[in-house]
Amino acid sequence: MKKGIILAVTLLLGAGVWMAASFTTTEAPPLKVGDVAPAFTLKNVDGKMYPLREIKDANGNTPKGYVVTFTCNTCPYAVMYEDRIQEMHEKLSPMGFPVVAVMPNDIDVKPGDSLDKMKERADDKGFTFKYLIDEKQDVYPMYGASRTPEVFLLTPNDKGQLILRYTGAIDDNAQNADAVTVNYVEKAVKAVMSNQEPSPSKVKAIGCSIKVKK
Amino acid sequence: MLNKYLLVLMVVGLFTFAACQSNAAPKEAPTDTAPVEEAQAAPTTSAKTADYPFEIVTSFDQLAPIFNRDSDSTYVINFWATWCKPCVEELPYFEQLHDDFSGEKLKVILVSLDFAKDIDRKLVPFVEEHKLRSEVIALLDGQYNNWIDKVDPEWSGAIPVTVLYNAKERKFIGEQFSGYDELSGLVTDLLKT
């Protein structure tokens, strides 16, 4: 019995070390399309904690999916996209797909991304989506997010688990919203609404690295 | 009973996490109060008439050959932008590398991902002000998804990243260097191959 316990503890410790190691690699294996995405509870710019699964869509209904978007105040790419993120929320939330924005940076490295500054930006810009802060920096590694902005489109399966359906860029022109030819997130939402697999389901883009605590 | 072991696991996990973090986290310079992301000087040159101090390419295909040179040289290719603070922080390492290894067959190339609209008002002044000695190439191909994987499938798109290669070996560094020694160490190893 005692040996069994020691073995169990050793295995658990081993698993712990392995998990810790895999979470700290800078190139954490990102969630792949089709993977179960972990839910999270984070603080919004209104100071309240929001469990992802309790966020509603524009009609006050349980969403058909979530457009989890890692973004921030300080990254020039994220700034270029902030109006588009608001527009995306206004368009998709009534369809059942609210944007849930998560600010992943360490605020000591990027003081411009503090909760107060996030609130300021949300007020200035009139953000109507939840703009949450990953204060402990433990959510973005679970998703394998590596840059801002970066989108993860999640929909629940019949077991109630959230499944990753699309990951990556918002659209195909960071610099000029008027010159966009494909809005990947909208395209993916339309696909999942008609029970199709989004194509493409993964689009890479240049962005700012997420700033890790020193 | 099980809870107790889970607790032990979590505590040990946390410690390991913290330990790894402190070792692995890049030692960035102290946060300064003037973010480089902010607009710098007003345009100093005209896009049409300027004689640029560096090459500008609009398609990744034009840049691609520098990743596949079949020669006895070693190449260090860094992706950066003037708006990217960790990139700007590590630029001096590449400049020092360029100087310290000037007697070796080493080529340092700094590929700027600054936006087209910022070439005149940010990149040109930056290159001139810092008197960059390494070769700079501005890449203006915004169809990122078409070429990021061609640089390296491991690359998520966040910058800075650096590719180091020669005929024998290739390395992809997906983050900021912790310091000059890390970069020069990698190059020294490559030069020995």
How would you describe this protein?
The complex is a heterodimer of chains A (214) and B (193). In chain A, the strands form two sheets. In chain A, strands 1, 2, 3, 4, 5, 6, 8, 9 and 10 form a nine-stranded mixed β-sheet that branches. Chain A contains five helices and eleven strands, in the order αββββαβαβαβββαββ. Chain A has helices spanning 2-24, 76-92, 115-125, 140-143, 184-193; strands at 36-37, 41-44, 49-51, 66-70, 99-103, 130-133, 147-148, 150-156, 162-168, 202-203, 207-209. Helices cover 30% and strands 21% of the residues of chain A. By secondary structure, chain A is an alpha/beta fold. Chain B is an alpha/beta fold and 193 residues long. In chain B, 39% of the residues lie in helices and 17% in strands. Chain B is built from six helices and seven strands. Chain B has a six-stranded mixed β-sheet. Chain B is globular and about 40 Å long. The relative contact order of chain B is 0.18. The model of chain B is unreliable at 6-49 (pLDDT under 50). Classes of the chains: A alpha/beta (214), B alpha/beta (193). At the A-B interface, helix 1 and strand 11 of A face helix 1, helix 5 and strand 5 of B. Strand 11 of chain A pairs parallel with strand 5 (158-159) of chain B.
Compact overview of the structure:
Chain A is of the alpha/beta class and 214 residues long. Helices cover 30% and strands 21% of the residues of chain A. In chain A, strands 1, 2, 3, 4, 5, 6, 8, 9 and 10 form a nine-stranded mixed sheet that branches.
In which order are the strands of the major sheet of chain B placed? 1-4-3-2-6-7
- Percent range of helical residues of chain B: 25-40%
Question: What best-fitting shape of chain B do the alpha-carbon axes yield?
Answer: globular
Q: Approximately how much beta-strand content do the residues of chain A carry?
A: 15-25%
Order of helices and strands of chain A: HEEEEHEHEHEEEHEE
Helical/strand content category of chain A: alpha/beta
Low-confidence stretches of chain B: 6-49
* Poorly predicted ranges of chain A: 16-27
The main sheet of chain B comes to:
6 strands, mixed
Radius of gyration of chain A: 18 Å
Question: Oligomeric status of the shown chains?
Answer: heterodimer
Q: What structural category characterises the helix and strand content of chain B?
A: alpha/beta
Helix content of chain A: 25-40%
Number of strands of chain B: 7
What is the count of helical runs of chain A? Answer: 5
Query: What can be said about the biggest beta sheet of chain A?
Result: 9 strands, mixed
- Mean pLDDT across all amino acids of chain A: 90
Largest interface: A-B, 45 and 43 residues
